[in-house]
Specification:
Helicase, Ruva Protein, domain 3; alpha/beta; two-stranded parallel ribbon; Rossmann fold; 321 residues; five-stranded parallel beta sheet; 45% helix; 2 domains
Length: 321
C-alpha cells in the first residue's frame, strides 16, 4: 500500500506542475485509471478540462490520441478505414487515432450519431470493426471525453447507452481567486512551460490494478450500495418523495461501477478494506448521469445531484435501521 500511495502522489505532484487546483478532478481521473473506467468531463470552456487530461496522459507513459469532435466528423476519421491498393487489388486496414491507450474525445457532443455509434463499440467491446475484420484495441483503453454544458448550437445529445458506459461524469467548476492568480502567473506567457516527466508506464499501471483486486468489500457494504442504486428506481421504498422527479433510475452497471470505485477510493486512501464513506464519496460521480430527470425536475429546477444528496441522507447504511 505505501508503494501505491507514493506512486499516486508522484503523479499528483507532476500534474500539479501544470494544472493549478482541480485536485478533485485529478483524484477522480487517477481513480478512473485504477478502475479502468471511461470518464466524461463537463464544464465551461477554459477551466482546464483538456489540459488536465493531456497532462495526466503524459504522466503515464502510454499511447495518447486527441480527436476534436465536430459535426462533420466521420466514423472513419476516428476508427480508421480500408484503403484500396491498386497494385494488389485489395483493401488494407488503416487504423485511426482510436487505437491508443488514452483517447481524448474533445467536445464529444459535437459529433453526429454515426460517430457516437462507432465510439460506443470501442467503449463497450474494446474493439473496432473495419470492413469485415475486427481489431482489438490496446490494453488499457480509456476514453476521456469533454463536453460544454452551455453551448447547444451544433451539438448532439449523447445516446443514453453511451452515457451509461462512462464510469464517471465529473463536473469541472471555476478556480478560486487564489488559484486563478497562480494560473495567471504561470500561464500568462507567450510560451507556457507544459512539459512533465512520465511517472509510470503501462506495465506499472496494470500492476497497480492488480492491487485493487485485493481490496476487500464486505457484503453489508455491497448491500448498502445496492440500496442506494435501488433508491433511484424505487424511491418510495425508502420513504423518499422524489419519484415525480425521476423518469428512470440507474442501471445494474451503476452497481458494478459503484463497488469498483469504492474499492479504488479505499486503495487511494491507503486501505485494503472498503467503508460506507468510500461509497458516499464516489456516489455522485458514478450516478449523476444515470438518473434521467423528469420535466418536473427540470422545471423546479432540481438536479440529479440534489436527488442523490437526498438519497444518501435517507438510505440506511445498515438494513435494520
Amino acid at each position: 500500500m505505501p508503494l501505491i500511495s507514493n506512486t499516486l502522489q508522484t503523479i499528483r505532484d507532476q500534474v500539479a506542475h501544470i494544472v493549478v487546483g482541480q485536485e478533485t478532478l485529478v483524484e477522480r481521473l487517477l481513480l478512473a485509471l485504477l478502475c479502468n473506467g471511461h470518464v466524461l468531463l463537463e464544464g465551461l470552456p477554459g477551466v482546464a478540462k483538456t489540459l488536465t487530461i493531456n497532462t495526466l496522459a503524459k504522466a503515464v507513459k502510454a499511447d495518447f490520441s486527441r480527436v476534436q469532435f465536430t459535426p462533420d466528423l466521420l466514423p472513419g476519421d476516428l476508427t480508421g478505414t480500408l484503403v484500396y491498393d491498386p497494385r494488389t487489388h485489395s483493401f488494407t486496414p488503416e487504423k485511426g487515432p482510436i487505437f491508443a491507450n488514452f483517447l481524448l474525445a474533445d467536445e464529444i457532443n459535437r459529433a453526429p450519431a454515426k460517430v457516437q455509434s462507432a465510439l460506443l463499440e470501442a467503449m463497450a467491446e474494446k474493439q473496432v470493426t473495419l470492413g469485415k475484420e475486427t481489431f482489438l484495441l490496446p490494453k488499457p483503453f480509456l476514453v476521456l471525453a469533454t463536453q460544454n454544458p452551455v453551448e447547444q448550437e451544433g451539438t448532439y445529445n449523447l445516446p443514453e447507452a453511451q452515457v451509461d458506459r462512462f464510469m464517471f461524469k465529473l463536473k469541472v467548476d471555476y478556480p478560486s481567486i487564489e488559484e486563478e492568480l497562480l494560473i495567471v502567473q504561470r500561464m500568462a506567457r507567450t510560451e507556457p512551460i507544459l512539459e512533465i516527466e512520465p511517472v509510470i508506464n503501462i506495465e506499472q499501471l496494470i500492476l497497480l490494478r492488480t492491487e485493487l483486486e485485493k481490496v476487500q468489500i464486505d457484503e453489508k457494504i455491497e448491500r448498502y450500495l445496492l440500496r442506494i442504486v435501488d433508491a433511484t428506481r424505487n424511491p418510495q421504498k425508502y420513504n423518499l418523495d422524489i419519484a415525480q422527479y425521476i423518469r428512470f433510475g440507474a442501471s445494474p452497471r451503476a452497481s458494478i461501477f459503484l463497488s469498483l470505485a469504492a474499492r479504488g477510493q479505499a486503495l487511494m486512501n491507503g486501505r485494503d478494506y472498503t467503508t460506507p464513506q468510500d461509497v458516499k464519496d464516489v456516489a455522485h460521480d458514478i450516478l449523476r448521469h444515470r438518473i434521467a430527470l423528469s420535466y418536473r425536475a427540470e422545471a423546479a429546477p432540481i438536479s440529479s445531484d440534489d436527488l442523490l444528496e437526498t438519497i444518501l441522507k435517507q438510505v440506511p447504511i445498515n438494513q435494520e435501521e
